[in-house]
Amino acid sequence: MKPDEKPNLRDQFGRTIEYLRLSVTDRCDLRCFYCIPEGFTDFQEPKNWLNFDEIELVVRAFTELGTHRVRITGGEPLVRKNLDQLAKRLASLPGLNDLSLSSNGTRLQKMATKLVDSGVSRINVSLDSLNPERYKEITKGKLSKVIDGLLAAKAAGLAPIKINTVLMKGINETEISDLIEFCMLHHFTLRFIETMPLGDTGRAATDYYFDLSQLRKKLEKEYQLIPDINTGGGPAKYWRTPDNNFSIGFITPLSQHFCETCNRVRLSVDGTLYMCLGQEHNVELRPLLRDGISLEELKIVIQDAIQLKPERHFFNENPSQLVRG
Ligand code: SAM
Questions:
Q1: What distance in angstroms lies between residue 103's CA and the mean position of ligand 1's atoms?
Q2: Close Cβ partners of 227 (under 8 Å, ≥ 6 residues apart)
């Protein structure tokens, strides 16, 4: 590399990996029917969880290779003890300039200020219904906790706050305008997501598949939406109202896949680095970390791993391919 050249992780299809999704737990305090089946207990044992030192070393290696954005996720990341301490360690890594979090919101009321103080700047919160009974049917959880959490996040200054709604035919499709009004009122960005065939439960949920491309056309007319140049750097495509007060995103892995611009890889709680959400290509980092791998060696392992990143997922052609939930 030339002295003035910035490091970057490039895969064999020319895509630059600038985003790491970091799962800090596979546990969750909700049971969304399309995500984890009720009664599921086959979680990773704590001894297999990467500890904070191990996570920090992996993230440091990524940042030194040019990956400057990290999203903490799970499971539900806020069920991992002392998560704010981990966030603080990651936020202070020199190459990291965007630390975000995806949460179901149930513990945000308690954690929002701590997260901001630790260096988390923005969050995505899952919210599939504004109706307490329906919310309970979908998630087995209590809606008021999430609403309180969202208000606490807003008050703590997390911004933008993006609401992720998995839209499902016959389940929550009647709530589209309520969700839009709610997000407009609070200045939250709303993102609708298509169900994906992830694991057995996810495959069952595709019975409720809702094609978002039709909905987008309808909402474009209704709210005079115009395409938003602010892409957010991920798979969502955004539209906004002409007054710029409301932005809405559509995540359409099935109707319009976005693999050609995929810029991310995923680290699971047990230290497995997955190259694609919809495929099994992976490298296990935990044994290397527990064998005392150095930072420089780890960077080489990561660079080699990125070359395994497949060109695209096959959710449409082969929805039963992925066994991982
Ligand atoms: N607990 C965190 C949260 O709620 O954001 C992070 C993990 S959760 C698995 C991440 C997102 O994936 C949530 O918005 C959830 O609704 C979505 N999700 C889970 N299973 C899905 C599926 N089969 N299809 C589409 N989205 C799914």
A1: 9
A2: 237, 238, 239, 240
Sheet holding 98-103, edge to edge: 226-227, 237-240, 247-251, 189-193, 161-166, 122-126, 98-103, 69-73, 19-23, 264-267, 272-274, 282-284
Distance 4 CA to ligand 1 centre (A): 40
Evaluate if pTM is beyond 0.85: yes
Ligand 1 pocket list (CB less than 6 A): 28, 32, 34-35, 73-74, 76, 102-104, 124, 126, 164, 166, 193, 195-196, 198, 202, 205
Rounded (5°) CA angle 228-229-235? 85
Could you give the CA distance from residue 99 to residue 97 in angstroms, rounded to a whole number?
7
CATH superfamily of 19-306: Aldolase class I (3.20.20.70)
For the stretch 83-128, pLDDT in tens is 999 999 999 999 999 999 999 999 999 999 999 999 999 999 999 9
For ligand 1, pick from 25, 27, 35 the residue to mutate: most ligand atoms within 8 Å of CB: 35
pLDDT at 313: 65
Nearest CA to ligand 1 atom 14: 126
